[in-house]
Amino acid sequence: MEFVLVVDAERQLLRVFSQLPFTVPEDKRMDLAIATCVATNGLADGSFDYDIEKGKIAFRLTASFRESKIGEGLFAYIIRCSSFTVDLFNDKFFALSKGYMSINDFMTQSK
């Protein structure tokens, strides 16, 4: 997993992004559109962004530190939450994109 961590001092935000390491084939893009919605709907924090034209999926999580200091607890939370979420869905998204899993199987396993 690769993560990009950005501190936006002007807007007082801490953001993390993780681009998933594969491109969804054109014939599977509608299934992945559904899958990213299903996955994101069940998350407590963060979201999956999906570019249906390019077949790219990324995870994004943002935390505000407005009027406070950034502590190690915030960094630990963002890294742990992002790692857990990407790890939970990366293989499922990949399997769906390769046809190893159906969208119905994905939805059943993601409840």
The pLDDT mean sits at 93
Q: Compute the number of strand runs.
A: 4
Amino- and carboxy-terminal Cα gap: 24 Å
The run of helices and strands is: EEHEEHH
What is the beta-strand fraction?
15-25%
Estimated structural class: alpha+beta
- The Cα radius of gyration reads 15 Å
Spatial ordering of strands, largest sheet: 1-2-4-3
Question: Roughly how much helix do the residues carry, as a percent range?
Answer: 40-55%
Q: What is the general shape? A: elongated
Q: Report the major sheet.
A: 4 strands, antiparallel
Which spans have pLDDT < 50 for at least 5 consecutive residues? Answer: none
Q: In DSSP terms, counting alpha (H) and pi (I) runs of 4 or more, how many helices? A: 3
Describe this structure in words.
It is a single chain. This protein is α+β, with helices and mostly antiparallel strands. Helix content is 42%, strand content 23%. The chain contains three helices and four strands; from the N terminus they run E-E-H-E-E-H-H. The protein has a four-stranded antiparallel sheet with strand order 1-2-4-3. The longest helix has 27 residues, at 72-98.
